[in-house]
Fold:
Amino acid sequence: MGLAIVRHLMDLHEGTVEVESQGKNLGTTFTITILKANVQVATQNANIETADSEGPDVQTYSPELLHGLRVLVVDDEPDARDLLTAILTRCGSDVRCSESAAEALQAFSEWNPDVLVSDIGMPNEDGYTLLKKLRQLNARAEKIPAVALTAYATDEDRLQALSAGFQIHVAKPIEPENFVTSIASILSDNAK
Structure:
């Protein structure tokens, strides 16, 4: 997962990653070259802004879409939680993370998020089990928009996630713009 995130960040900055090793148990050297430290993007009103280097520049394509939204992120991988938190907080969302289904159920009860973003493949209880248990908690939990976030990316996996009650299936490694607009679209659908 960590290498997938590095690859995605390098794609965003038109950079490269080179890996070199002298052999087993001799360590590995990763060389990262970033060709674009600052990215200029046209905003909707045709002004030009410069992105800072703190993370993916999701502000340029959807700053208001998720502003004020409470998002519960559930993933057993710390790198994935960090990346999702960075993307969502840059869009103005309030984010809480859990590393397991049990922790997520407790966080949901205490915090009442607006959206659930859950990994599917987790140890002990997977995302499907989490969503099933969550839907049984109360009327609010029964209707919370849920995003399946998973490395399982086939059409069959997508259909399984949707039939399990997730409104959307997002394949890892994620594309920040697609991820944010996907969440915005399920919120829009739920508002109708």
